[in-house]
Design brief:
The protein has 9 helices and 4 strands. With 305 residues, it is mostly helical. A two-stranded antiparallel ribbon has the order 1-2. A two-stranded antiparallel sheet has the order 3-4. The radius of gyration is 25 Å and the shape is globular.
């Protein structure tokens, strides 16, 4: 069966949505590639969920987070493969090989997939949780890092939807936020991971370096695609698709392999299953007061110290 998603979902053609058409948009080849990535993300989701059943419920947290990442990505790539979740934005730079606008306008529109940013808004915090929980980083630092990550993604989306050179201001804001995230992952969190043992440190270092290396390539992709209109929409699909495959399913496989013999309790996550005795779960509050001593004063009243 041939792929007619672009024709089926373009009103008016080409790549039309809400009355706006885009001269620069994916072809059937680009749509097919998005469908292929959808398939990989879907299979990865079922694989990660399946692997979770090899562990007790109290040790499935990383399987659930990792499966959620690829599940969300599968929905996003299904949407992009259907040529949906996009809108046309006039390009800032008109290249010599840029197709003319179907409406006759001097500046053609480029197809911007805002659904890609919805995906990243949900999945990149989950990726960071996978990493930073592995390192045993304090929750305030994790939450602040996720906040900066959201700034990075949202400024990228706003910049992509701006026609003028002001888009590069949002690009700079996003890059600054990313550098803070990269510092936390490569320096601060690595110190915490090193204190938890060689196996935790090795798993964190492999996954952390892998992630930050790939994330440094995303701003380059943005500059060539949404920002500078340098490469075609199909090339954009291949570029982002390969990056997402490396950053999500491959990352997930590396992380879960590294966690195969790591008890989440070592990372500060004490999760109790319903059939387990609560007394076996460490109670930090009770431990804190376990050394209280009763003192009887001269008048016969007693107190604890």
């Amino acid at each position: 069966m041939s792929n007619n998603a672009i024709d089926a979902n373009s009103h008016p053609a080409p790549h039309g949505v809400n009355g706006v058409t885009s001269a620069i948009g994916i072809s059937t080849d680009g749509s097919n590639w998005y469908w292929a990535v959808t398939a990989v993300m879907t299979v990865s989701t079922f694989a990660f969920i399946g692997l979770s059943f090899t562990k007790p419920r109290s040790r499935r947290v990383f399987h659930y987070i990792t499966a959620a990442i690829t599940m969300i990505a599968a929905i996003a790539y299904f949407t992009m493969g259907s040529d949906l979740g996009q809108t046309g934005i006039p390009v800032e730079f008109v290249r010599s090989d840029t197709p003319p606008s179907a409406s006759g306008a001097n500046v053609p529109n480029r197809e911007i997939f805002y659904v890609r940013y919805i995906d990243w808004t949900l999945t990149t915090p989950l990726l960071l949780m996978d990493l930073l929980l592995t390192a045993g980083l304090p929750w305030p630092t994790i939450l602040y890092t996720i906040l900066l990550d959201e700034v990075m993604i949202i400024t990228g989306l706003v910049g992509a939807l701006v026609q003028s050179s002001y888009k590069w201001g949002y690009f700079v804001f996003g890059c600054v936020a990313f550098l803070w995230v990269a510092w936390t992952v490569t320096v601060s969190a690595r110190q915490y991971a090193s204190a938890l043992g060689r196996d935790v440190s090795k798993t964190y270092t492999i996954c952390g370096v892998w992630t930050i290396f790939l994330w440094f390539l995303y701003p380059i992709a943005w500059g060539l695609c949404e920002g500078g209109n340098v490469i075609s929409a199909d090339a954009e699909a291949y570029f982002y698709g390969v990056l997402d495959l490396m950053a999500k399913p491959v990352f997930g496989a590396l992380l879960l392999w590294g966690h195969r013999n790591i008890d989440p309790a070592r990372l500060g996550m004490h999760i109790r299953d319903y059939h387990e005795d609560p007394a076996l779960v460490p109670d930090t509050h009770a431990a804190h007061h376990g050394n209280d001593k009763e003192v009887t004063s001269a008048n016969g009243n007693s107190s604890t110290v």
